[in-house]
Design goal:
By secondary structure, the chain is α/β, with parallel strands linked by helices. It has 12 helices and 11 strands. Strands 6-10-11-9-8-7 form a 6-stranded mixed β-sheet. It has a 5-stranded parallel β-sheet with strand order 3-2-1-4-5. Helix 11 links the parallel strand 4 and strand 5. Helix 1 packs across helix 2. The protein starts with a helix and ends with a strand.
C-alpha cells in the first residue's frame, strides 16, 4: 500500500512541475517560434516535479501514514456516540455555511475578483463546521433523549398495534368457536371450574335463567343433600362469572311452552347452534339422537384414564359382591369399577387378576377380570 502511495505522490509532481514551469515562462516573458522549444520548459518541469516528489515520497508517505494513525488513535478514544453526533453537527454546520456563502458567489471586487469572498467562504465553512461538531457533542444527552423518545414512541405504537391485532384475533376466535350451554348437572359437579382455570375451555359459556331457577329450587329444597348441592351450584356460577379466562352470558331466553329443563336446553342448543355441556347420561343420549353436540365431562375423564388392555394382570382388592351371582367388585385408585368373575369368595382380600374385557360408556368405565 505504501508503494502505491509513493507512486501517486510522484505522479502528482508532474502537473505540479508543469504548473511551476508555466508560471516561470509567464514571469520571464520567454517567447519562441519553435514548438519544441516552447514545450521544453513544460516537459522539463514535469520530469523535475516527478523526480523531486519521488525522492521525497518516502518521507511524505511516512508523514501521511503517521497522521492517519494519529487520527485513528484519536477516533478510538472518542466514543462512537460522540463521533455520530459530532458528524451530524458538522453536516448541519456545512449546510448552514452553504446558504450563508451562496450570495457571495455572484459578487466580485475589481482587480481581486471574487478571491476575497472565496477566502471568506472557506473561513465560514471551517468555523461553522467546527461549531457544529462542538455544539452537537455538548448537546449529546439532549439529542440522545430526542431520538430515544422517537424510538420508544415507535416501539409503543407497534406494541399497541400488536395488542390490538391480538385482541382482534382473540375476539374473532371467540366468535368462531361454538358457544356452550351449561346444564344443571355440570354446574353442580363443579369440575368445569377447574377446566376453565386450566385453560381447556374456549369460546363463550351460556347459562340460561331457567337453569339458574332450577338451581335455586334445589338450593331451597327441604332435603339437606339437595340444598347443599344447589348452593354449591350457585357458588360455582359466581366463580365462573368472576373468572377472567372465559366469557359468560346469562340469557333470559325461555320456552314457556316446554316444561322440562333438558328439552329447553336442547331446543336452545339448536336455535343458537351451540354445544351442550352436561354430565347427564340420559340428556347425552337424547342429544345424540337429535344430532346436537354434547360435551360430557365423564367422557373426558374416561379418555384421560390409564388404558387397560385385555390380557394385562393387576392386583385388586375385592370389597363387595357384584349384581350377578359369584361376582366381586373392586376399584382402581381413580374410581374405575372392576368386576371380578367368581370373585365373591375373595371379598376382603387382594388377588391377582387378568383383564378379560373393558366396557367404556358415558356413565363410566368398567373393567371385567378373572382371578
Amino acid at each position: 500500500m505504501k508503494k502505491i502511495t509513493r507512486v501517486l505522490i510522484s505522479l502528482i509532481g508532474i502537473p505540479l512541475g508543469i504548473g511551476i514551469a508555466w508560471a516561470v515562462v509567464l514571469l520571464s516573458g520567454f517567447r519562441t517560434n519553435s514548438t519544441l522549444t516552447a514545450l521544453f520548459p513544460f516537459f522539463l518541469g514535469g520530469i523535475l516535479g516527478f523526480v523531486i516528489l519521488f525522492l521525497i515520497s518516502n518521507f511524505l508517505t511516512e508523514f501521511i501514514y503517521d497522521l492517519i494513525k494519529r487520527a485513528e488513535n484519536k477516533l478510538d478514544e472518542i466514543p462512537t456516540i460522540d463521533v455520530l453526533t459530532g458528524t451530524l453537527g458538522v453536516i448541519l454546520g456545512l449546510i448552514l455555511a452553504f446558504f450563508i456563502t451562496r450570495p457571495f458567489s455572484e459578487l466580485s471586487i475589481p482587480l481581486l475578483g471574487n478571491t476575497v469572498f472565496v477566502f471568506l467562504s472557506v473561513i465560514i465553512y471551517l468555523f461553522l463546521g467546527i461549531l457544529g461538531w462542538r455544539t452537537a457533542v455538548r448537546a449529546k444527552p439532549d439529542i440522545r433523549n430526542f431520538f430515544t423518545k422517537i424510538v420508544s414512541g415507535n416501539i409503543e405504537k407497534r406494541s399497541e398495534k400488536k395488542d390490538k391485532i391480538k385482541e382482534k384475533i382473540k375476539k374473532n376466535l371467540h366468535d368462531t368457536v361454538k358457544p356452550k350451554i351449561l346444564d344443571t348437572s355440570v354446574i353442580i359437579d363443579g369440575r368445569i371450574l377447574d377446566m376453565i382455570n386450566a385453560g381447556f375451555i374456549e369460546g363463550k359459556l351460556i347459562v340460561p335463567e331457567f337453569v339458574l331457577e332450577e338451581l335455586q329450587h334445589i338450593a331451597d329444597s327441604s332435603d339437606d343433600l339437595k340444598r347443599q348441592r344447589g348452593r354449591r351450584g350457585l357458588d360455582i356460577i359466581n366463580e365462573i362469572k368472576n373468572s377472567d379466562k372465559i366469557k359468560v352470558q346469562i340469557t333470559n331466553k325461555d320456552y314457556k311452552d316446554i316444561k322440562e329443563v333438558d328439552i329447553k336446553l336442547l331446543k336452545m342448543a339448536k336455535d343458537l347452534d351451540a354445544k351442550v355441556f352436561t354430565n347427564d347420561y340420559n340428556l347425552n343420549k337424547v342429544a345424540d339422537v337429535q344430532d346436537i353436540e354434547v360435551l360430557n365431562i365423564n367422557d373426558l375423564v374416561n379418555a384421560l384414564k390409564a388404558v387397560v388392555l385385555a390380557g394385562e394382570t393387576m392386583d385388586v382388592s375385592i370389597i363387595k359382591a357384584g349384581k350377578e351371582k359369584g361376582q366381586g367388585i373392586g376399584y382402581l385408585d381413580d374410581g374405575t369399577m372392576i368386576v371380578v368373575e367368581d370373585g365373591e369368595k375373595y371379598i376382603g382380600k387382594t388377588v391377582k387378576v387378568t383383564v378379560t374385557s373393558v366396557l367404556q360408556t358415558s356413565a363410566g368405565k368398567m373393567i371385567f377380570v378373572k382371578p
